[in-house]
Specification:
Radius of gyration: 21 Å
Oligomer: single chain
Largest sheet: none
Strand content: under 5%
Length: about 450
């Protein structure tokens, strides 16, 4: 296999011919970002950053905007479904680095799906006082993932249409909640009345790792680049519009939550912080309204994420970067990857408490992101017309956040740092083993293995 890809991926027989509009792409990007950032990570960010936690979202948006530069430049030139895999393959060739970094991204996305699914379950069960009942949380999370599979299996048009409707509902609802809560509570109560200590500067910086996770949903657009109408122009536009929409929403919600609850209360209600903030500010009606919006947000987030990661895994399979077996299933590779994605996400959602796994996702994503920037800087910046200064700034920003996050976690939860290092090493070793064996297989060299798929 050479170091070039066809300009546009051939759609398999199970996919429809519909393309995703600019509005649909923005809806998917914001769907993933808002589902994870507000409802699953606000409590963890506030716990680390203290009363200054809204600034963490601002820093996360700045780092993400720098990071988006590499993705936009690459996607404008080579738009593709599974775009991150394409970027890495272009930067490093079809080898261990590209395959491993792509798999790290896919794993971080699956972890995110499970995290958001459990957040959905917690909000859905909160009105009944059952949010601490483990088996019910697992069951509700699994039900959402199955629903996400059914929507995705219906085709691109269904995903795009559903994402547009759900994103409009949740963005409007979240903004309404935030404005009402700020109006009711003001700016001088809750967390904002607490003393700010600059001794927590490292923890504030570390919290940006979670904020970056809250914005990384923009890669949903990159991974779906081949599905967008006029992708050479619309991929970049869609990414920047999505980031801009999300920073406005995130800041409004952070201020609303911080004005209603103390940092201790936010940390205690980390799995349902918006609903907890709604009660003192807006009463029972506000509480139930917020629960409804959370359900809409997390639902659309999981659906959009399943769409993106299944496309990415399809690209990795077609590029022969990961092994594939149909296990007796009919249909094409894309339909198989959709099944595998929801099976892994569902398993994680049922078996694990994902509050710690969010940290694992942050490690995976930051390492992958740094490899993207370095690869584009070293090998492709002239070809895609990218500025070296911006690429290096994005790389440095990721490195600073990763260092601070690692330092804080070594003090508070050293095991998760070890798990992350072990996980990354395992991915690289497994890909080296698979690609080494593949290169020795005559069927792979002649292309016969691809035909058998």
């Amino acid at each position: 296999m050479g170091n070039t890809l066809p300009k546009r991926e051939h759609r398999d027989k199970t996919s429809d011919k519909q393309s995703i509009s600019l509005l649909g792409g923005v809806a998917m990007g914001t769907g993933v970002m808002i589902g994870a950032g507000i409802f699953a990570l606000t409590g963890q960010i506030a716990e680390l950053a203290g009363p200054l936690f809204p600034l963490s979202f601002v820093a996360g948006a700045l780092v993400t905007s720098l990071a988006a530069y590499s993705y936009i430049k690459m996607s404008n030139k080579w738009p593709s479904s599974g775009g991150i895999a394409m970027i890495l393959q272009k930067a490093y060739g079809p080898g261990v680095v590209a395959a491993s970094a792509s798999l790290l991204m896919a794993l971080s996305m699956v972890i995110n799906e499970s995290l958001v699914a459990r957040t959905f379950a917690t909000y859905a069960l909160r009105p009944f006082g059952l949010e601490t009942t483990g088996w019910l949380v697992s069951l509700a999370a699994l039900a959402l993932i199955v629903f996400a599979y059914l929507v995705n299996a219906a085709g691109n048009k269904s995903v795009s249409g559903f994402s547009v409707v759900m994103s409009a509902i949740k963005i409007g609802g979240i903004v309404l909640f935030a404005v009402a809560a700020i109006w009711a509570s003001g700016f001088s109560s809750g967390a904002f009345s607490q003393t700010v200590s600059m001794t927590g500067a490292e923890a504030l910086l570390a919290s940006v790792a979670f904020s970056i996770l809250a914005f990384k949903g923009f890669t949903t657009i990159t991974n779906s680049g081949g599905e967008l109408v006029d992708p050479h122009k619309n991929v970049g536009r869609t990414i920047m519009i999505s980031i801009a929409v999300c920073i406005v929403v995130y800041l409004l919600v952070a201020i609303a939550v911080g004005s209603s609850l103390s940092i201790e209360d936010i940390a205690k209600a980390r799995d349902y912080s918006l609903a907890a903030a709604a009660r003192p500010a807006l009463g029972e009606l506000g509480f139930y309204f917020t629960v409804a919006i959370a359900i809409a947000a997390t639902t659309s987030g999981v659906i959009a994420s399943v769409f993106a990661v299944s496309r990415m895994l399809t690209m990795l399979t077609k590029m022969k970067m990961i092994p594939h077996s149909h296990f007796g299933m009919s249909g094409g590779i894309r339909s198989h990857m959709l099944v595998y994605t929801v099976v892994v996400a569902g398993t994680l959602a049922v078996l694990f408490d994902l509050s710690r796994i969010a940290s694992l996702g942050a490690f995976f994503y930051l390492v992958m992101d740094m490899l993207i920037h370095w690869g584009v800087f070293r090998n492709l910046r002239e070809e895609v017309g990218a500025r070296a200064s911006i690429l290096l700034a994005a790389l440095a920003a990721d490195a600073v956040v990763l260092a601070a996050f690692t330092s804080v976690k070594l003090k508070s939860d050293p095991a998760i740092v070890a798990y992350a290092a072990l996980g990354i090493a395992t991915v690289f070793l497994a890909e080296w083993f698979y690609l080494s064996r593949k290169s020795e297989d005559p069927r792979e060299i002649t292309g016969q293995g691809a035909a058998d798929e």
